[in-house]
């Protein structure tokens, strides 16, 4: 199964894709994670995109498309994947159609007020990478993890990311609706319920 996962910042894409990947063996590919890793390594790509990520602005299509195409080319043939955070523009969606055989585009539908609440409370462990929310952080995470706030989770960057979603990614939702691949899912249930719904799509 080759799947695209759409939804505004904070909709829970990373949370549910991680859970489904663990349960099914399908690969979870997050362009945000790939860019953050490049920034951390201070690679040439990381140096080019660091300021864009921090501000909550999209990375240019040419760089993003090349990154995903190269990443998919390194995967063994026949392995399924969930693309989280790609495509985010119509040119990215059109390019993807040329090098992958996308079977479904799942849209996590979550109201804007709720995603702002989730992003403001999100913390990521700087050691193990686990994602939490201050509203629901388990007691053992508070003991064993070193939770930090993502740089682009400050109010100004959150606003810019939501603006980018409305202007540039909503047309991608329409693109997949037109091609008949769109599968909207209510993303307001608990993470495990949303993951179950995504797993149903993955298992066809
Ligand atoms: P990226 O990392 O993709 O950020 P995003 O799309 O803004 O998504 P997030 O990671 O913020 O949210 P999420 O939906 O994964 O939610 P999460 O599961 O963490 O991209 C970052 C940047 O990289 C972009 O701004 C851009 O600069 C660049 N970039 C990436 N891809 C690009 C592309 N294709 N083109 C150009 N530039 C690109 O959950 C959020 C919080 O909610 C957590 O605290 C979680 O615990 C909680 N939560 C999750 N699910 C639930 C639930 N069901 N109920 C209650 N709480 C929940």
From TrEMBL:
It holds the Pfam family ADK. One of its GO terms (molecular function) is ATP binding. The keyword Isomerase does not apply. Keywords: Kinase, Nucleotide-binding, Transferase. Coiled coil: none annotated. Belongs to the adenylate kinase family. This is Adenylate kinase. It comes from Geodia barretti (Barrett's horny sponge).
């Amino acid at each position: 199964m080759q799947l695209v996962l759409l939804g505004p910042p904070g909709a829970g894409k990373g949370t549910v894709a991680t859970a489904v990947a663990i349960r099914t063996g399908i690969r979870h590919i997050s362009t945000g994670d790939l860019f953050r890793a490049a920034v951390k390594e201070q690679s040439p790509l990381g140096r080019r995109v660091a300021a864009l990520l921090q501000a909550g602005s999209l990375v240019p299509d040419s760089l993003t498309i090349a990154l995903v195409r190269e990443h998919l080319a390194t995967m063994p043939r026949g392995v399924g994947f969930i693309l989280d955070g790609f495509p985010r523009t119509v040119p990215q969606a059109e390019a993807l159609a040329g090098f992958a055989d996308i079977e479904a585009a799942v849209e996590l539908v979550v109201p804007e007020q709720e995603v702002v609440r989730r992003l403001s409370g999100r913390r990521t462990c700087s050691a193990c990478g686990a994602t939490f929310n201050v509203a629901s952080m388990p007691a053992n995470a508070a003991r064993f993890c070193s939770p930090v706030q993502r740089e682009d989770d400050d109010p100004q960057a959150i606003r810019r990311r939501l603006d980018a979603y409305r202007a540039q990614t909503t047309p991608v939702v329409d693109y997949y609706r037109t091609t008949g691949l769109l599968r909207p899912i209510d993303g307001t249930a608990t993470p495990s319920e949303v993951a179950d719904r995504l797993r149903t799509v993955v298992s066809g």
